[in-house]
Amino acid sequence: xxxxxxxxxxxxxxxxxxxxxxxxxxxxxxxxxxxxxxxxxxxxxxxxxxxxxxxxxxxxxxxxxxxxxxxxxxxxxxxxxxxxxxxxxxxxxxxxxxxxxxxxxxxxxxxxxxxxxxxxxxxxxxxxxxxxxxxxxxxxxxxxxxxxxxxxxxxxxxxxxxxxxxxxxxxxxxxxxxxxxxxxxxxxxxxx
Length: 192
What we know:
Elements: H1 5-24, H2 30-55, H3 61-84, H4 93-115, H5 124-142, H6 154-187
């Protein structure tokens, strides 16, 4: 299981979580940039673990189990640390809560549907949501110590990206919920 490179990459994403958290505790700007670097590595492994598993025909039940868990743990830990470090504050906590709630909802749906042996594949839009979310989190990790992008600071770019990811999160979460509820309605007997 852990001897295959795709699974090693997935597991390295989990190992990166406490490193990112610890680096965010270091003073700025060093802590910001180091945390961003480790997070960027972890985000890139999210693409390569699946790509290599398919390309090298090394897909496994272990990888299918661990990959979404690694993603959700990484995103949740970074979001919580960004709130703690006040890179996310005020109204921007709303998209953070939406993203976290959607991750819990989809995890619960996947667990329920797996017991019923119903597949819930990742949609193209959900993949774009993940890309936008990871890029936004990278900008937020760098925060105010990063360069400006025209009239916007690095932090502002991250905030706008987080709102965009939250909108896609709502859409894809609704799609998954609708698919799950459709299966529940098809399998539950009507109540008299």
